[in-house]
Design brief:
3 domains, Butyryl-CoA Dehydrogenase, subunit A, domain 2, Butyryl-Coa Dehydrogenase, subunit A, domain 1, alpha+beta, 50% helix, four-stranded antiparallel sheet, Butyryl-CoA Dehydrogenase, subunit A, domain 3, 9 strands, 381 residues, three-stranded mixed sheet
């Protein structure tokens, strides 16, 4: 089970109970079907809104619960620990990532227009950064938003977009000037019912099967200039300011999923027999699991430290990068070792450890690859 941690208080414990109740009622009965169909039902969002679990950090004046990012972390932890990484990613992109951009950089009108609808589940939000030829190198973005009077016309393509199918609003990273590199990038709000917007194919992924991931196309999609989020040309700085929160939540959810793998493995080795003994009785098993338990404890201590600093507004980009790098790499090692204890059964998709193994692999890629994390950390040496 997830460890008790001092970063949370009694009110958070009550909130965690509510999240667990929601998962039991609204996720568990449908999850296997969602995995098969490659997308959660649209009602997942409506149910989350009714339960008050979408965008919990949004102030009450904008239709939210008025909580803090610790409430977001609890939801992510519980979804990941329950083994539901696909719905966790859906939730996180909407509530942790997209909401943060609108809260921090949106005009009053943008906040009043979109945040209540996102908190209720009426609108699902996605963020479109990655392009077919551009991954972690955001400076290479080629999607353009060209000004025509009081409008922008957006031309380009994006890929690997989580929530792409259900999204009613997309935060698009686009070039609004000819300045090279990081200069000239802006964040633009694009409603998906505008002419010229097109959803591409649903991408067939190794893991996170129930998290819909699409290609998106923009063929002269016209939006008002007022749809620019914050200051024109400030997109790269906005991305850099918000990415630490995204990387922190990836670390938190990675650790919860690793804890899940560890816990179900401990249960399994107590039951599985080899050479007339439970696998858990062998010294090799006990010692390796002891190592994993210690590593998980270290991870929880560090991510809680980062979460506390984030709540105080003091989490640095380097600290967030360290958390994502260490925890996502550790998740891969933990889940791989745990799967080994299952033997051949660990390779069967009917066993949860197999899905946890597949779902873990992308944690070292999205939100900034491990290589990018090392580059960012090294700059502070």
């Amino acid at each position: 089970m997830l460890p008790h941690r001092d970063i949370y208080d009694q009110d958070h414990a009550l909130f965690r109970d509510a999240v667990r109740g929601f998962i039991k009622a609204e996720v568990r009965p449908h999850f296997e079907r969602w995995e098969e169909q490659g997308i959660v039902d649209r009602d997942y969002w409506s149910a989350g809104g009714r339960a008050g679990l979408l965008c919990p950090q949004v102030p009450e004046e904008y239709g939210g619960a008025g909580g803090s990012f610790r409430h977001n972390a609890i939801i992510g932890e519980e979804l990941a620990y329950a083994g539901y990484s696909g719905p966790m990613v859906n939730y996180s992109v909407h509530s942790d990532v997209c909401t943060g951009y609108i809260l921090c950089y949106g005009s009053e009108e943008q906040k009043k227009t979109w945040l209540p609808r996102m908190a209720s589940g009426e609108i699902v939000c996605a963020v479109a950064m990655t392009e077919p030829g551009t991954g972690s190198d955001l400076q290479g973005i080629r999607t353009r938003a060209t000004r025509h009077g009081d409008s922008l016309r957006i031309q380009g393509a994006k890929t690997f977009i989580s929530n792409g199918q259900h999204a009613g609003l997309v935060i698009v990273v686009a070039r609004t000037s000819d300045e090279p590199g990081a200069r000239g990038l802006s964040l633009v709000l694009v409603e998906t019912d505008r002419p010229g917007f097109q959803r591409g194919r649903k991408l067939d992924k190794l893991g996170l099967r129930s998290a819909d991931t699409l290609e998106l196309f923009f063929d002269n999609v016209e939006v008002p200039v007022a749809n620019i989020l914050g200051q024109e040309g400030a997109g790269f700085a906005q991305l850099m300011n918000e990415l630490p929160q995204e990387r922190l939540i990836i670390a938190i959810c990675s650790l919860a999923a690793a804890q899940r793998a560890f816990d179900i493995t401990c249960d399994y080795v107590r039951e599985r027999k080899a050479f007339g003994r439970a696998v858990g009785e062998f010294q090799n098993t006990r010692f390796r699991l002891a190592d994993l338990k210690a590593e998980l404890a270290v991870g929880w201590s560090f991510v809680d430290q980062c979460l506390g600093r984030h709540e105080q507004g003091r989490l640095t980009a380097v600290e967030a990068s360290m958390a994502k790098l260490w925890v996502s790499e550790k998740q891969g090692l933990v889940v791989d070792q745990c799967l080994q204890f299952f033997g051949g059964y660990g390779f069967m998709r009917e066993y949860e450890i197999s899905r946890l193994f597949a779902d873990a692999r992308v944690q070292r890629i999205y939100g900034g690859t491990s290589e990018i994390m090392r580059e960012l950390i090294s700059r502070g040496l």
